Amino acid sequence: MRRSTLLALQVLVAVVVLGLWQFFATVPVFERMVLPPFFFSNPVDVFSQIVAWFQSGVIWKHLVITLWESILAFAIGSLGGVMVGFWFARQPRVAAVFDPYVKMVNALPRVVLAPIFTLWLGLGIWSKVALGVTLVFFIVFFNVYQGVKEVSTTVLDNGRMLGMSERQLMRHVYWPSALSWMFSSLHTSVGFAVVGAAVGEYLGSAAGLGYLIQQAEGVFDVSGVFAGMFVLSAFVILIDMGVTLVERRLLIWRPAAADGRG
Amino acid sequence: MDTAQPNAVALDDATVAFRLADARVYTAVEKAKLAVAHGEFVAIVGPTGCGKSTLLNVAAGLLKPASGSVRIFGQPLTGLNRDAGYLFQADALFPWKTAVDNVAIGLEIKGAPREQALQRAQGWLTSVGLGAFGNRYPHMLSGGQRKRVGLAQVLIRDPKILLMDEPFGPLDAQTRQIMGNLLLELWNADRKAVLFVTHDLEEAIALADRVVIMSAGPSARIIGDWRVSLPRPRDISEVRMEKDFHELHREIWSVLKDEVMKGYAQSSQAAEAV
Ligand SMILES: Nc1ncnc2c1ncn2[C@@H]1O[C@H](COP(=O)(O)OP(=O)(O)OP(=O)(O)O)[C@@H](O)[C@H]1O
Ligand SMILES: [Mg+2]
Q1: Which sequence spans correspond to the domains of chain A?
Q2: Angstrom distance (rounded) from CA A2 to CA B39
Q3: What's the pLDDT score for residue B4?
Q4: Selection from B22, B68, B79 nearest residue B221 by Cα
């Protein structure tokens, strides 16, 4: 399919869906609304809500808070995941001892931790960051662990025969391999950082996109809920595009760098 | 041969066994006796799966023989063989480094300044015919090009012993000859001890001072050792026309042929048994 045709079809889908939504939410069919405005709002109202947010500027504060929480969650979770992943992969005994506990914590649906984090860290950004960290950490941890363990033995032997010391093997072999696995899960981990932030805000906070949605919901403002959702997905898509750019730079050495693992 | 100098590599009754998953033991090579003198070029030929790579791993110090001894320049080998450069059979380049970085790394880890290492690496890439491919990553190179980068990676460190495992395996016939001649040229310049594994008997005779034949596994043994007295310097394509070459080839092949058939039969039996 040609690019222009594809784009036209993609726009068509949006137009049809929004058109149907607008139609059934505003024009009665057999004297009844198929999509009652109270529950479904309509695209025009949602759009004007978004415009109003940006015009008055209130949205920026919330965007910045969510972005900041996501960045912190991602940075802290990745750092921890890389370090622990590396450590476990190089010390099989440590890994064996902790294995059941790692599995246990990872099996826990992270949302149930949100109230605890709120209790411990308050309603500010740190309880959201903590929730994001628990999500990001495990993805990065598992990938780095895998990356260090699955270094090709031939490549390792080659490093040894070329005269690399244990430290040089770290720097030139284990480290790049682990990072490549980490970066290949970048989309997932960045996505989870945002999920942690938004869910945390939704469950209890004073600012952020999740808070915005939760507030609108509290007063049965369906337009506000949808508007918040749209802003949130646009936000995630933008971040994801950024990640793709970073990935292209960093994974240039890999065949088909675009498709991630994990 | 100068007997006062110890051999560069000497395997004495080296037996190599692998523990299989079901706790059985598979003896790959039994009582291998093999010596490579200073500056000597020895080729190992044998049926697939007989243990050629295993022998190189032993000489490299990556694998410990179950019994027997390994001596490098007269010293018993403990740990890795620091005098050897090893060109592996499988892909061994660092996939996250460009070709030129892959070649330069051997100097960099010895503490050479990066600029200088890169410059010399570029020189080596040029001499293996890949001067224009320096900034490609391994996955952007063909199998043969990767082998040549690997050759440069090993040679830049100037090892005293060169272990090469089917280095020209994935190359086409013409490039094989070009690379063979290049190898001989480089080797002529400073006569390293070379242990060269190939499945191509003609290549072995054309390149080597001695051709060693292994029997089919399990418990493969070294069953023949021929001296190649063709004059040097040689040209790979011309040396194949000589009468001596043909006679030697016929002689070695008559031994090797049976082993190749045996090796093939054994591996297909093993496949049926599974
Ligand atoms: N780690 C291992 N565990 C068990 N068996 C092994 C192992 N490595 C090699 N072998 C066996 O030892 C034998 C010799 O292997 P080797 O790789 O040395 O063969 P080769 O002569 O190099 O073959 P090719 O010409 O195909 O490369 C084979 O039968 C192989 O199956
Ligand atoms: Mg082999």
Answers
A1: 1-40, 44-250
A2: 63
A3: 64
A4: B68
Report the candidate in A59, A56, B252 with the shortest Cα–Cα distance to residue B260. B252
By alpha-carbon position, which residue is closest to atom 24 of ligand 1? B48
| Beta-carbon contacts of residue A201 (< 8 Å; ≥ 6 apart) | A65, A66, A69, A128, A207, A208, A209, A210, A211, A214
Please indicate, yes or no, whether the overall pTM of this predicted structure exceeds 0.90: no
Of A161, A163, A254, the CB nearest to B110: A163
Pick the CATH number of A44-250 from 3.30.470.20, 1.10.3720.10, 3.40.50.11810, 2.60.40.10: 1.10.3720.10
Rounded distance between C-alpha atoms, residue B224 and residue B252, angstroms: 8
**Cβ count within 10 A of residue B181:** 18
**C-alpha angle B166-B168-B171 in degrees, rounded to nearest 5:** 140
Q: Is A138 exposed, middle or buried (0-12, 13-18, 19+ CB in 10 A)?
A: buried
Say what the pLDDT of residue A179 is.
85
Among A154, A164, A254, whose Cβ lies nearest the Cβ of B92? A154
Rounded to the nearest angstrom, the gap between the alpha carbon of residue B148 and the centroid of all alpha carbons in its chain is 14
Residue A167 CA neighbour count, 13 Å, CB half: 2
Q: Which atom of ligand 1 is nearest to the CA of B218?
A: 29
Is B88:A157 a contact under the CB 8 Å cutoff? yes
Average pLDDT over chain A reads 89
Residues B184-202: tens digit of each pLDDT? 988 988 889 999 999 889 9
The CA distance from A66 to A72, in Å, is: 10
Among A56, A212, A204, A194, residue whose Cα is nearest residue A116: A204
In the sheet with B67-72, reading across from the earlier edge strand, the strands are: B25-36, B9-19, B67-72, B75-76
Query: Cβ separation of B109 and A172 shorter than 8 Å?
Result: yes
What does the CA dihedral B178, B182, B183, B188 come to, rounded to 10 degrees? 140
Contact B193/B56 with Cβ under 8 angstroms? no
pLDDT digits (tens, 9 = 90+) for B57-103: 999 999 999 998 999 998 999 999 999 999 999 999 999 999 999 99
Domains in chain B: ranges and CATH = 9-83+160-273 (3.40.50.300), 93-158 (no CATH)
Pocket of ligand 1 (CB under 6 A): B 18, 20, 26, 28, 46, 48-54, 89, 199, 217
How far apart are the C-alpha atoms of B48 and B33, rounded to whole Å? 20
List pLDDT tens digits, range A191-244.
Answer: 999 999 999 999 888 889 999 999 999 999 999 999 999 999 999 899 989 888
